[in-house]
Amino acid sequence: MKRAYNVKCVDFTTAGIKVVVMNKEDAIDLDVGAMDRIEIVKDEKVITAVIDLTDTFVPRGTLGLFREAYTRLGAKDGDTVYVKPKEKPSSVKYIKQKMNGVRLTKEQIYEIIGDLMKEELSDVELTAFITAVYIRGLNDSETIALTNAVVDSGGKLHLNAKQIFDKHCIGGVAGNRTTMLVVPIVAAAGLTIPKTSSRAITSPAGTADVMEVLAPVSLSKDDIEEVVNKTGGCIVWGGAVNLAAADDKLIRIRHPLALDPRGMLLASILAKKKAVGATHVIIDIPIGEGAKIKTRSDAKELAKQFNGLGKALDMEVHSLLTDGDHPIGMAIGPSIEAIEILKILGGKDVSPELKEKSALLAGILLELGKVVPEGKGRDAAIKLIDSGKANKKFREIIEMQGGDPEVKPDDIEIGKISYTVRAEQSGRIEHIDNRGISAVVRGAGAPNDKRAGLYLHVEDGDKVKTGQELFTIYANSERKIDQALDVYKERRPIRFSKIILESLD
Q1: Domain total for the chain?
Q2: 125-130 CB contacts, 8 Å cutoff, 24+ apart
Q3: Is 249 a domain residue?
């Protein structure tokens, strides 16, 4: 049963499966209902779309196409298209099986990811799949199959190196911009480290947001290969290239639900490493009150899974359990973090903890790459920073990515309006909450406004007196400053020790 319809553009986007709006009377004639699929043909082009129904929005004989469907067909208002019902893909059956606790085969997982990439699955069906994985879990064979299916869903980097190094942090720690130090350290030692990083989703700055202050990060696959083959490293936005493409589609569904199924988390991270050709990977797993992983036992189990699955995927994966109970760097926000990185590489002692943690991570990669003997990596990494070699390499990378290699910390603009929050009482800083302090920075406008940020003047354990500076907020309007202060008053991310307070008084 195939029927002809006139086309009308509905200027909405879904960022997922293509959607059309059909008059209810036409749907009855075609024997389809809401959320059913139809095949639409225009000239040589064929797409699958999901139906929304209306009484009045489109008249009988007219099909309203959301922007994705309209563009994909190359349609114009008034064009004629031909429509017929279409059955649900067989992968929907496999999703239902997963919901019932059935273990999926490699072929079934590949079919689910294949239909995802062809945009054959609706958001409802993808949500069901993610929820099923969250509740039922994935065993090792399912996780390996999902990882490989995600890798095969996009392109792969082809680099002139036999060994390729990479790193990843599970996240959740404010100011944890170790990538921007690890990459130039490792590349300065002669190893190859292509780093594809993310933009902020719920944080005030992702690594790609910070690097973009210094150089373009939306590079093509060919450009990334050129940068890495010439300098040994890069720091680019992974979303700009078609690497492990299915992962971004899954994240789009996972994020609003705040669902991070363990098997899907493992597959997501390892697929991106596999797609750049990584042979050696260091995984940073922060543990603490404000981090994603709360307990050491959970972190150990996660590390064991990473290491084991890495081996099954022909990657040598080492996991490092780190302190994620408080912010690592003193600067939080894209521009102010970029300034901090330039200062550290330039020899300034502005954030010892960030420098030390980065040296530990980079040091493990140097040891894996046989640049130095086991146990000597951290010292070698520190030497590469202190000698200026890492700084020189970083500026080579900046230049190759299209930035200014001569950029200085003072060249980077931060919010033109600032406000310093001071201690209302004497005491000891017991805890600085990662999520709370990040929320303050987002209130100031980050990451959309790269100049918005916050600089901490204190760390956990510091003694402070009444009136002493705690942190300074930077924004570009008084309204944003007020908004950030409102968040601070609501969240109270800096906690004082009452016992110490009494003894100091």
Answers
A1: 4
A2: 125/92, 125/95, 126/16, 126/249, 126/250, 126/253, 127/253, 127/257, 128/95, 128/96, 128/99, 129/95, 129/98, 130/250, 130/253, 130/254, 130/257, 130/259, 130/261, 130/264
A3: no
Question: How many residues are listed for the chain in this entry?
Answer: 505
Taking only the tens place, the pLDDT of each residue in 160-200 is 999 999 999 998 899 999 999 999 999 999 999 999 998 88
Mean pLDDT of 364-383: 97
Whether 410 contacts 475, CB under 8 Å: no
* Measured distance CA(199)–CA(334) in Å, rounded: 10
Average pLDDT over residues 117-139: 92
Could you confirm whether 260 is annotated as catalytic? Answer: yes
Cα–Cα distance, 76 to 40 (Å, whole number): 14
Q: Are residues 352 and 473 in the same domain?
A: no
Q: Does residue 505 have a pLDDT over 50?
A: no
Q: Is the peptide bond before 184 cis (omega within 30 degrees of 0)?
A: no
Asked if the structure places residue 34 within a domain, the reply is yes
Q: What's the pLDDT band for 388 if we cut at 50, 70, 90?
A: very high
CATH number of the domain within which 453 lies: 3.90.1170.30
Looking at residue 239, its pLDDT comes to 82
Single-letter code of the amino acid located at 135: I
**pLDDT for 414:** 98
CATH number at residue 125: 1.20.970.10
The residue from 79, 123, 260, 482 that is catalytic is: 260
Domain span including residue 115: 91-137
pLDDT at 504 over 90: no
Identify the three-state secondary structure at position 400.
Answer: helix
CA distance 351 to 257: 35
The answer on 315 and 236 residing in a single domain is yes
* Banded pLDDT at 502 (limits 50, 70, 90): very low
The HSE-up count of residue 448 (CA atoms within 13 Å, CB side) is 6
